[in-house]
Amino acid sequence: MECESENLDKSYADEKMENGKTENHINGTLDKENSNPNVEKKASKDTQRRHDEPSELSFEIFPENAEEKIKRQQIEKALEKDSNTTLEQWRQFARSEYGLINDDLRQKVWPLLLSVDVTQCDPVPSLEELSKHPEYNQVVLDVNRSLKRFPPGIPLAKRLALQDQLTAIILRVISKYPHLSYYQGYHDVAVTFLLVCGDEIAFHIMEILSTDHLVECMQKTFEIVQKRLLLIYAIVWRENKDLYEYLERSQCGLLFALPWYLTWFGHSLNHYRSVVRLYDYFLASEPLLPLYVTAAIVLYREEDIYREECDRASLHCLLSQLPDELPFEYLLIQSEKLYAKYPPHNLHKDIEKIIEREQKIREEEDKVFETRRQIIQRKRQPVPTPQPFIYKLIPRKLVLHRRSIFVSTAFIVIGIFAYYYKTHTNFNVDVIR
């Protein structure tokens, strides 16, 4: 049975696939760094929600531990000495364990990570003006689907106002940069910055990300993104060839990772705390780090993968659902290590090999499919019944339908009688003589 989760992943690609459009160093030592959580991890508790809808975020607040308190105080002191704090120091705070701790600090530090001028205030077009944009209806539709990404219990009026602000942020960006194309999932990124920073700063953040980190996702087709996703398998191939070959045999592909890359995992995670922690990390890292985090997750889930049958549907269902208990601090450290070992520019040849292997597999599949098709077609053809001897005496053009058969038969009968009559008559005449 086909996995329902394919519905969501395909929804991200459908718009750009149709009509022929194509199919990240953390300082500080952590106790977790030298111990692999695979030894202790429990079986995955994947939810059974439909993947054509966003997951419902949990906004549960956790008490601050001693390490988080110390780091929070360090960030607060750095904010007091803002002019003396370098961009690299802000990045270090965002990448290292626990990230930026809370949303109050994120509201101040996220703009610093992207050098956003918080005093800049561009004129905001009205929704009526923005509604003339050709993508307006699609944006509104996607924003209306994002209800579960807002905090629970939020008053209706406030939520509706936030939805209007989210719509305006998206349309302002794609109106200002008409060469960029909106994609489904873009709103999942924008809503996180809106909730943390407010609409004006969120607009400037999205403006910068759309022309940098997310620019490849905002092209007219997903051709570049498709090739980028192959980085995941290139990393897995380098790190664990047996696991890569198992995934290759299953032919599960990389569709499961598409929404993770397009939304920075914002659409697929169930805990708001995990989403903003990853956003801390990605804002302070190289644009391709989300792919290295994805590769780290696939490698981490090796045991889960081997427990599944080696077929496309089973592994796609498994990989497309992120377990709630993923140890992201460990995974971010592993991602840094993978990026240091296998930087993107060293993986081009591996990607080409993967493309060649996949092409050969597809060609073999096509041959098998064509052979099966021919066999089935031959089986469906009716077996010809042996024709009576009389059909061999009748010209083929005469045997077109029942009427032709009757006419032909009549002529033969008449001929036989005529021959008989002639012969019999001649015989009688000779006898009389």
In short:
This protein is mainly α and 433 residues long. The protein has 20 helices and no strands.
Kindly describe this structure.
There is one protein chain. The longest helix has 33 residues. The C terminus is likely disordered. Helix 10 packs across helix 11, helix 10 crosses helix 14 and helix 14 crosses helix 17. The chain is mostly helical.
Write the layout of secondary structure elements.
Blueprint: H1 6-17, H2 66-80, H3 87-95, H4 103-113, H5 127-130, H6 136-144, H7 156-176, H8 186-197, H9 199-210, H10 223-239, H11 241-250, H12 258-263, H13 272-283, H14 289-300, H15 302-307, H16 312-320, H17 328-341, H18 348-380, H19 389-393, H20 402-432
Can you give keywords for this protein?
433 residues; mainly alpha; 20 helices; elongated; disordered C terminus
Total beta strand runs: 0
Unreliable runs, pLDDT <50, ≥5 residues?
Answer: 4-10, 17-54, 427-433
What is the CA-atom radius of gyration, in angstroms?
34 Å
Q: Main sheet?
A: none
Q: Helicity range of the residues?
A: 55-70%
**Content-based structural category:** mainly alpha
- Overall geometry comes to elongated
Report strand %.
Answer: under 5%
Average predicted confidence as pLDDT: 82
What is the H/E string? HHHHHHHHHHHHHHHHHHHH
Number of helices: 20
